[in-house]
Amino acid sequence: MKKFRVYSPELIDSSEPSIHVEHIEYGGHPDDPFIKYLEINAEDIGDQYHTIHELYKHRMALNIALFRAWNFISQDFPEYQIMRSKLHNDGTMFEGYFIVMALTPKGQISYHYKLKHWDDFDFLSEVDKTPKWDGHGSIEVIKRLMKM
């Protein structure tokens, strides 16, 4: 069960029946309450077509397909380097996770996955540590992917 801190009661007045509120605790002044925390089952979050869990599975499947293709072409295009590692360049890693990274002409593209998915990326070369992070975030990765 995940706990989310929410400051607007309107956020739970959703017409989406897929969101089931487990527990709400209110705080603040009686005339201006806010939700102190809200417990919901994260598996229930999504749009009317997919849960967040399904969307993450889609993301991973697309990532595997893309990195598999890039890994194949990297034999002829050395500017594409595709790898996986259990450590960032600085020797850290989120507990229970690993990283997959592509070095491309547009910059780094990387994703973190739980260690239980390590073998799903067994086609990638394993490196001790990834190259130094270039500062990219989710938005920058999207922009880089859209330019390719």
Describe the structure in your own words.
The protein is an alpha+beta fold and 148 residues long. The protein folds into two domains: 2-44, no CATH class; 52-147, no CATH class. It contains two helices and seven strands, in the order E-E-E-H-E-E-E-E-H. The protein has helices at 52-73, 138-147; strands spanning 2-4, 21-29, 32-40, 81-85, 97-104, 107-114, 125-126. The chain has a four-stranded mixed β-sheet with strand order 6-5-4-7. The chain has a three-stranded antiparallel β-sheet with strand order 1-3-2, with no helix packed on it. Strand 2 and strand 3 form a beta hairpin. The longest helix has 22 residues, at 52-73. It is globular, with a radius of gyration of 20 Å. Mean pLDDT is 82; it is low at 1-19.
| Relative strand content | 25-35%
**Helical residue percent?**
10-25%
| Total domain units | 2
Rg from Cα: 20 Å
Distance from first to last alpha carbon: 38 Å
Name the strands of the widest sheet in spatial order: 6-5-4-7
Give me the secondary-structure category.
alpha+beta
Query: Unreliable runs, pLDDT <50, ≥5 residues?
Result: 1-19
Tell me the overall shape. globular
Strand count, sense and barrel status of the largest sheet are: 4 strands, mixed
Q: How many E strands?
A: 7
Topology order in helix (H) and strand (E) letters: EEEHEEEEH
Quick check: average pLDDT? Answer: 82
Number of DSSP helical runs: 2
Quickly list its features.
single chain; disordered N terminus; four-stranded mixed β-sheet; 7 strands; 2 domains; 148 residues; 22% helix; alpha+beta; three-stranded antiparallel β-sheet
